[in-house]
């Protein structure tokens, strides 16, 4: 089979791998679509993402969907031909966590994630024609949800988790700073969860053009505008260290700021006085627990992710797809790979 493999910074190839076979308790997926994430871009551009450093060739991709091609011994309730996406996380070691984070599997101290170099050996992802996963990682797509949209269940799950971290957003005004793929999905998730009004801000007009059909009631171009004041719930989705001060100032007294954009792993400079004098609750949001299931239900119930998809490439053009996703001047938001070969 063909697979999208990053060998080093700037070196991505379409490699031939042996066709996999499912073992006991496993399922073989014939992949159809994969969404390019910021971590895929970072491995391609830098050979690392955060503290995860590429030591060996790695198959990219954790936003994937396809159809069941075969099931291994002992697998029940899953049939060949079923459309499905994949929960990409696998807990490593003792599954128990302290009571204070009971049930929050995303905070387990050691997790293998599809398409990740965080552990050695690395965990190959799903940008390949076939992928074997455990049966308990399979999430069947509801009727009416295509495999193309199913590939976005993982990032939509990230967005829904961020909204969950904010508390009850029903009837409230929400600001999402950073209208990239995750930010635009946070816009949609907040509206789905009942936010009365959603404002989206960014320095890129094409990103704002995506945020609007994803549900933003108002867009703010920060090249010639400023963030509003006194917003009760703010999501910082740009991951830009320079945004910390402005979004803190935009957050109302006693309000909540959810940090969903991944900040640099190095020290950053920021003025944090507003955090104290406004008594702002600044909370982090990391991946998701089971919100990938909520994402599928949301799409079944009418949440339309189509506007966030701006480009589609065949598997053979994976490098061009990565370059397009990395270049904001292309107007790209979510870039998809057709993995059918």
- Total DSSP helices: 9
What is the CA-atom radius of gyration, in angstroms? Answer: 20 Å
- How would a textbook summarize the main sheet? 7 strands, mixed
Class based on secondary structure composition and strand pairing = alpha/beta
CATH domain topology of the largest domain: Quinone Oxidoreductase, Chain A, domain 1
Mean pLDDT: 96
Number of beta strands: 20
Helix proportion range: 10-25%
Judging by the overall fold, what is the CATH architecture of the largest domain? Alpha-Beta Complex
H and E string: EEEHEEEEEEEEEHHEHEHEEHEHEHEHE
In the residues, how many domains can be counted? Answer: 2
| Strand fraction | 25-35%
The CATH H-level superfamily of the largest domain is Medium-chain alcohol dehydrogenases, catalytic domain
Query: Which descriptor suits the 3D outline?
Result: globular
Distance between the termini: 9 Å
CATH class of the largest domain, named Alpha Beta
Low-confidence stretches: none
């Amino acid at each position: 089979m063909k697979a999208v493999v990053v060998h080093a910074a700037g070196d991505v190839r379409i490699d031939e791998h042996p066709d996999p076979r499912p073992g006991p308790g496993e399922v073989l997926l014939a992949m159809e679509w994969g969404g390019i994430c910021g971590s895929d871009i970072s491995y391609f551009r830098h050979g690392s993402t955060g503290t995860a450093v590429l030591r060996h060739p790695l198959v990219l991709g954790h936003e994937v969907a396809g159809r069941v091609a075969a099931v291994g011994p002992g697998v029940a309730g899953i049939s060949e031909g079923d459309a499905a996406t994949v929960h990409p996380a696998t807990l490593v070691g003792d599954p128990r966590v302290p009571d204070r984070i009971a049930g929050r599997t995303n905070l387990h101290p050691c997790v293998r994630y599809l398409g990740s170099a965080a552990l050695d050996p690395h965990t190959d992802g799903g940008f390949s024609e076939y992928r074997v996963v455990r049966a308990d990682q399979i999430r069947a797509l509801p009727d009416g949800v295509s495999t193309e949209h199913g590939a976005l269940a993982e990032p939509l799950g990230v967005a829904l988790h961020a909204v969950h971290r904010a508390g009850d957003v029903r009837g409230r005004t929400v600001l999402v700073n950073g209208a990239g793929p995750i930010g635009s999905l946070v816009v949609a998730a907040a509206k789905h969860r009942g936010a009365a009004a959603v404002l989206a801000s960014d320095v890129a007009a094409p990103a704002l053009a995506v945020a609007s059909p994803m549900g933003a009631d108002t867009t703010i171009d920060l090249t010639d505008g400023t963030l509003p004041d006194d917003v009760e719930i703010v999501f910082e989705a740009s991951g830009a260290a320079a945004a910390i001060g402005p979004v803190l100032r935009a957050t109302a007294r006693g309000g909540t700021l959810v940090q969903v954009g991944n900040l640099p792993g190095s020290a950053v400079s920021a003025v944090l006085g507003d955090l104290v004098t406004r008594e702002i609750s600044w909370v982090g949001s990391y991946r998701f627990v089971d919100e990938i299931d909520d994402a599928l239900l949301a799409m079944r119930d009418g949440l339309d992710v189509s506007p966030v998809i701006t480009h589609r490439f065949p598997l053979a053009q994976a490098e061009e797809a990565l370059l397009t996703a990395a270049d904001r001047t292309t107007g790209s938001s979510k870039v998809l790979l057709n993995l059918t070969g």
